[in-house]
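Journal club prep — side note

Before the paper discussion, L.F. wants everyone to see what a predicted structure for a comparable chain looks like in token form. Sequence:
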Amino acid sequence: SLEIDMHELLEFNHELAMLLLESPQKYLPLFNQACVAVQRALKQAASVTANICSVKEDVHVRITHLPNHPSLQRTRIPGSEDVGRLLSISGTVIRTGLVKMMETHRVFACTKCRGTFSVQAEIEQYNYIPKPTRCLVPGPDFCSSTTFMPADSTEEMQRCVDYQEIKIQEQVGRLALGTIPRAIVVVLERDLVDMAKSGDSVTVTGVVMCRWRPVVVGERPDISVIIRANSISVLGDQSSQIAITDELRDEFHQFWANHTNTPMRARDVIVASMCPQVYGLFYIKLAVMLVLISGVARSDLTGMRVRGEAHLLMVGDPGTAKSQFLKYAAKLVPRSVLTTGIGSTSAGLTVTAVKDGAEWQLEAGALVLADRGLCCIDEFGSIREAEKSTILEAMEQQSISVAKAGIVCKLNARCSVLAAMNPKGKYDISSSLSVNTALSTPLLSRFDLVLVLLDTHDEQWDARVSSFLLSSRQPGSSTEAEDAVDTDPGDTWAFDKLQAYIAYVKSAFQPETTSASEQVLTGYYQMQRQRDTLNAARTTIRLLESLIRLAQAHARLMFREKVLLADAVVAVVLMESTMLSASILGSIDTLHTTFPEDSDLFYAELEALVLSRLNLAHLGGAE
């Protein structure tokens, strides 16, 4: 294949580029023939290397990077009015078919004149090769024969090419609310096959065509729109879907430069911009923000991978804004899937086998579609027990193994899971979490954080929330940030800026731990292991990994390359606020937490308390 950038072609020869865009089915074969002609000309010119070089006949031009115009780059599935056009469409692969061999043409021999001629396969009729109605042998003599037979040829295999069909779906994040995403079949040929797998975000450039089955008398023809791919590119990282300009980068650097002496205050401005329509809930907003940013995945020489994606479970009474956080987080991450437990099956969450004609194909579920993104599951407790067990592998190993309908494979599911559920009956503080939630120990241990939101009747809190909801200010104004963080209205960040910041810090920073942070995390882990009331669901080695991930995420949030003592202390405080391991700070009511008035002073008090409880007070001046 020879890739041609459309922008370069437009600069080189504008008329030729416009002809290609208007009539791709006519000009793309001419481009392929031109490639072969250039090879022959070069071989004749280079007489010295003529014996070494060979002319590759099966060369194809791949057009990439179409101009950024709504008629050429689409996010919606094209319709019948686009048939015959060359365009690009971005979507998510939800189904991949088997790789087959397709016969491109068949050679027939005339029984009368003994001449041979070839008939091309019609891709519009599912690669059907029609039997000729008359002799097509070129020559002055007209042969009126109507009887033919396939010619015996030693080049039988050269007439076959690799062929695969995939199905791509519109990206859910770019659709209007309430719109059901549509899908379209994309035909891949030759070296394009097997370039994409289920769950990949791809950009396909190709020609829109109609396709129908061979016409049968008495039956209505079923015509569908497909794309015959000319080139396909797989988008690896979700940050590539968000435009981060140099101005935004400079703005982020300047923001942290202005808050060198008050870093925690700066952090709280960012955290307060998260879900501003919900009052208070400081620890929950901070926890959701850290889960969206996540830690750093690491692999050793043997290929063993330790996940960097963090998982969060919110268990709470009705009306504690759990679903609000899920919806806001799904909007914030460009590649996200939002589903509810009651309507999700194991196949819908992982992968399902679909029979298409005579063969079986795999169709990606929610966790696979959210690869390198976020999967939000509401009503997590409503998922049936059999379905919960399928999530175990996806959450820890970040992959899904499939053995269905004779297909055995492994798909990537490198996503963070953000789940919310109600407790089983009224939450009993004296009982363990697994009893209150009816979730198994292996599943609970996979969540980095489990936040419990109990709606205790607090008169002062109810009065503050009521005045917040009934205030005359506009819904978009950052009331909470003004009241809690004590900043000007212009200081809170807009949604687009917050989205760009999360994408930027995930790609720009790979924090490494320092000696002070390691001592805090290790000391806290050992203290939890030695407690009398050991919680088997939480105090496994996964607790230490969760602490490392949270500390790395906080270092990214704080815009730095090192995991400092402050990051480790915040990770410990968040772990304490889960109400599962309250051994240092006592029980923290996560629901009734507001943003501190002086963030840096509040952190200094927390740091002193944590270090004294861990017998590490000498680390207080480490920074």
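L.F.'s comment for the group: The longest strand covers residues 223-235. Keep this in mind when we get to the figures.
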